Amino acid sequence: MSVPPIVHINRYDKIFPLSGISNAKTIGCNENGYYSSYKSDRYGFNNLNSEWDENDIEFLLIGDSFTQGACVNRPDDIASVLRTLSKKAVLNLGYGGNGPLIEYATLKEYYKPAVKNVLWFYYEGNDFNDLENELKDKTLKNYLNDNNFSQNLKNNQIQIDEINSQLISKSFFETNLKNIKKGSKIKYKVIKFLRLDKSKNVIKNTLMSDSSKHNYDEYNFKKILKKTNEYVIKNDSNFYFVYLPKLERYIQCRFKPCKNDRPQKKSLKITNKWLKK
Question: pTM of the prediction?
């Protein structure tokens, strides 16, 4: 089971894990008729352990579920494709649910010397909302406010594994308890299908969403992007900002004018300003 870092927000454990359980089979999601899975590396990310032993890293990836490789198996995830095309080492530090602040923290904790290119995958569909949530956690805010802050996570993997294992056990128990209360797991899935839950959510998110109701923290997004860029340049790497548009924005334009694109305009404006320096 995949344990995203966002589940640790405001849990106030001794450390804030930014990865999953190490050297373990990690089960993902099912969008293609099968549940994706991979064996995690020594730090709980979607890599082979051998990638960490390479002297030169061509690409280091940070991002959310797109980067992690949600719902696909190797070699169809982004990192594996880059390895195949470049025939060089690639480190994947992506994890589902990550926003800009967790991604910056992950880069600081797991950056490896001799990285040539850092690719930051930004998803316009939820990254500003993720940032709003991340800023509520005192540990994550330390990364933003103190350039020297570190949890030394590379040397605390045993503790990370213990914290994530406890969460999985608790989640498994609560999930099965809910299924028992609803009669059975199969019955519950049938009910959800008959209620057209997924269809309703797609329609709601596509036609009724109003991004103006969310808080777009331009100041802190700019601050994180600036710090990331400076950190990467300081370590003699190239920084590439990869902008991933959301599908819903294009679907919306088929039914109503796409006037409300504040977060897209803001993030692109900020990105162009800092990355041209």
Answer: 0.81
